[in-house]
Amino acid sequence: MKLLRVLSASALIFIPPAIQAGVWDELFGPDNYWECLLEKMPQTQTYGGSMEHLSQCASRFPDQNDYQTGGGWFGPDTLEECLQEYRTETNEALARLSIRKACFRLFPPN
Q: Rounded to whole angstroms, what are the CA distances from 52 to 46, 84, 94, 95?
C-alpha cells in the first residue's frame, strides 16, 4: 500500500496544479477523525476556529471509531510525544482539549 502511495505521488508531476492539492491530501492527508484534528488544531487561536475545524473533521470522517492506534512514518510514537508536539502550539482551550483527546485516542496510555 505504501508503494502505491509513493508511485501515486510521483505521478503528481503530470497532473495540473488545481487537481494536485486534492490528490496530495487524499494520499498523504489524515486517515481518520483524530489525525484530522491533529492536523488542523495546532496554531488555532479562536474558539470559532476550533469549532470550524471540529466540523470539517466530523464531516470528512463521520465515524470517529474508525482509526488505528500508533504513529505514522513521521509523527509521534508515544502519548507524551504527541502531547508535546501538538498541544504547545496553541493556547485556545477547545483546540488544546481536542488535541489532548486525539493524542489519547491514537496513543492510549499503557
A: 10, 23, 11, 11
